[in-house]
């Protein structure tokens, strides 16, 4: 090997690496204002409702296991996450505590979650929600009509809807925690 | 982003699928590298240490992720056991795998340094493959950019950090293969692997938009990266064959 060098040279190299590396880490740290810098694009809104970015969100009315109904369009003015899920879907279950954390953090600022359960009976959904202690409302899509309208053939599917009722981000498959919080923060910060 | 692959009635996570392929590739590369460097005996030791190291990596990866997301994992400790590949962090997986592998070698009285050299050669191509899986599943995504090679993801165009990671792994692999053909004290290839990993953490982490953060916005992976480089340099400094001056 031709790495031969004196001990002093190795020490010098170590000091330089520590110094340069440390400064680089400090220089590239995440500054608070850059966290929200990854702005979602705001394109002209299309006319037809569709589960796609920059389309008005398809409206629906569903009831929760207790029988109370929720209409999506009645939530205009709030940032809404429509999360299509099922109790048998492991990535959905793994994702829900993160959604719940975001719900707890941002609900006072006008964020709400509609967890649309795909084709399961009310009793098992209610039991699941009670058992896991999730605080957001679960809605029953018994005939799968809403899942179909949102083309949610992948579970979980998530649709972030802005205060104006426009779909702004669509995620198919589980979201990471940063994605949920980042998207919600950006949409909450926008003017309606 | 193609997070799911439809296979008949099953939806398979594409990231998970590539991770499994990466593990198969890794175990075969590890055994080949071990056979080349130490014959049948080392190959047997390598395959015996593979599973414990893998378990260590899984535990380390999840612990790292959970501890840094403690506000989420603390109140819901069952999350530590959830089968969710996205909630693994590579720095923790690397440290956990190394620790488990080292303990296994000590317990079985294997030659840890020689085995580590073979492991380093077996790790990088699977890492490249798993990084492509990250792109498919939309994990480890980059900060927004308008560079011509940016990829559209999550409503904007972003650095394809996953491809950078794959490229870094392939370049590191080329460097290690070059070193593999030269003679050095046992452990040299592995230590150079640590340096390439450290530099990858240090240099690519700032382009990621999903870093695990410590107070003051410091990226945890960069600290691990710098520590790996320093530990590796300290080891190299201690090698008589690499140092001309006497110890003192």
Give a short overview.
The complex is a heterodimer of chains A (192) and B (248). By secondary structure, chain A is an alpha/beta fold.
Assigned CATH superfamily of chain A: Glutaredoxin
Number of strands of chain B: 4
**Structural class estimated from helices and strands of chain B:** mainly alpha
Which whole number gives the mean pLDDT of chain A? Answer: 86
**CATH architecture title of chain A:** 3-Layer(aba) Sandwich
Strand order of the biggest β-sheet of chain A: 1-8-7-4-5-6
**Helix fraction of chain B?**
55-70%
Low-confidence stretches of chain B: none
Largest protein interface? A-B, 50 and 56 residues
Taking all Cα atoms into account, the compactness measure Rg of chain B is 19 Å
Envelope shape of chain A: elongated
Strand proportion of chain A: 15-25%
Note the topology.
The complex is a heterodimer of chains A (192) and B (248).
Chain A lengths: L6 H21 L4 H4 L19 E2 L4 E3 L5 E3 L7 E7 L4 H17 L4 E8 L3 H11 L5 E4 L3 H5 L7 E5 L4 E7 L4 H13 L3
Parallel strand pairs in A: 4-5, 5-6
Antiparallel strand pairs in A: 1-8, 2-3, 4-7, 7-8
Helix pairs in contact in A: 3-6
Chain B lengths: L3 E4 L2 E4 H55 L1 H4 L16 H19 L3 H26 L13 E3 L2 E3 L2 H20 L7 H17 L15 H19 L10
Antiparallel strand pairs in B: 1-2, 3-4
Helix pairs in contact in B: 1-3, 1-4, 4-5, 4-6, 5-6, 6-7
Structural write-up:
The complex is a heterodimer of chains A (192) and B (248). The longest helix of chain A is centred in the N-terminal third of the chain and has 21 residues, at 7-27. By secondary structure, chain A is of the alpha/beta class. In chain A, helix 3 (90-106) packs parallel to helix 6. In chain A, strand 5 (111-118), helix 4 (122-132) and strand 6 form a beta-alpha-beta unit. Chain A contains six helices and eight strands. Chain B is mainly alpha-helical and 248 residues long. Chain B has one domain (4-240). Chain B has a two-stranded antiparallel ribbon with strand order 1-2. In chain B, strands 3-4 form a two-stranded antiparallel ribbon. Chain B is globular and about 50 Å long. The model of chain B has no long low-confidence stretch (mean pLDDT 85). Chains A and B meet through helix 1, helix 3, strand 8 and helix 6 of A and helix 7 of B.
């Amino acid at each position: 090997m031709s790495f031969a060098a004196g001990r002093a040279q190795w020490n010098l190299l170590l000091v330089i690496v520590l110094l340069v590396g440390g400064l680089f880490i400090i220089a590239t740290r995440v500054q608070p204002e850059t966290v929200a810098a990854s702005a979602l694009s705001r394109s002209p809104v299309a006319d037809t409702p569709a589960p796609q970015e920059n389309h008005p969100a398809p409206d629906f009315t569903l009831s929760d296991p207790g029988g109370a109904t929720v209409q999506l369009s009645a939530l205009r003015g709030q940032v809404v996450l429509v999360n299509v899920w099922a109790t048998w879907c492991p990535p959905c279950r793994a994702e829900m505590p993160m959604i719940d954390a975001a719900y707890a953090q941002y609900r006072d600022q006008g964020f709400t979650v509609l967890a649309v359960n795909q084709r399961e009976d009310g009793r098992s959904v209610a039991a699941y929600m009670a058992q896991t202690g999730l605080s957001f409302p679960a809605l029953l899509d018994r005939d799968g009509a809403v899942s179909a309208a949102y083309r949610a053939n992948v579970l979980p599917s998530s649709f972030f809807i802005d205060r104006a009722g426009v779909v702004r981000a669509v995620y198919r498959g589980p979201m990471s925690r940063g994605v949920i919080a980042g998207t919600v923060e950006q949409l909450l910060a926008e003017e309606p | 982003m193609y997070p799911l692959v439809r296979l008949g009635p099953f939806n398979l996570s594409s990231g998970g699928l590539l991770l499994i392929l990466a593990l198969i590739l890794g175990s075969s590369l590890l055994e080949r590298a071990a056979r080349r460097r130490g014959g049948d005996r080392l190959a047997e030791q390598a395959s015996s240490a593979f599973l414990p190291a893998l378990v260590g990596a899984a535990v380390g990866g999840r612990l790292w992720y959970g501890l840094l997301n403690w506000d989420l994992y603390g109140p819901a400790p069952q999350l530590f056991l959830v089968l969710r590949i996205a909630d693994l962090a590579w720095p923790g997986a690397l440290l956990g795998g190394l620790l488990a592998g080292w303990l296994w070698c000590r317990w079985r009285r294997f030659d840890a340094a020689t085995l580590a050299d073979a492991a380093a050669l077996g790790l990088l191509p699977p890492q490249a493959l798993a990084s492509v899986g990250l792109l498919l599943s939309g994990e480890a995504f980059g900060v927004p950019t308008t560079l011509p090679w940016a990829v559209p993801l999550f409503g904007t165009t972003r650095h394809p950090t996953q491809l950078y990671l794959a490229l870094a792994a392939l370049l590191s692999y080329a460097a290690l293969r070059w070193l593999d053909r030269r003679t050095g004290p046992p452990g040299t290839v592995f230590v150079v692997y640590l340096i390439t990993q450290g530099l990858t953490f240090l240099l690519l982490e700032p382009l990621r938009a999903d870093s695990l953060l410590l107070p003051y916005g410091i990226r945890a992976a960069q600290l691990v990266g710098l520590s790996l480089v320093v530990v590796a340099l300290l080891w190299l400094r201690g090698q008589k064959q690499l140092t001309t001056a006497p110890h003192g």
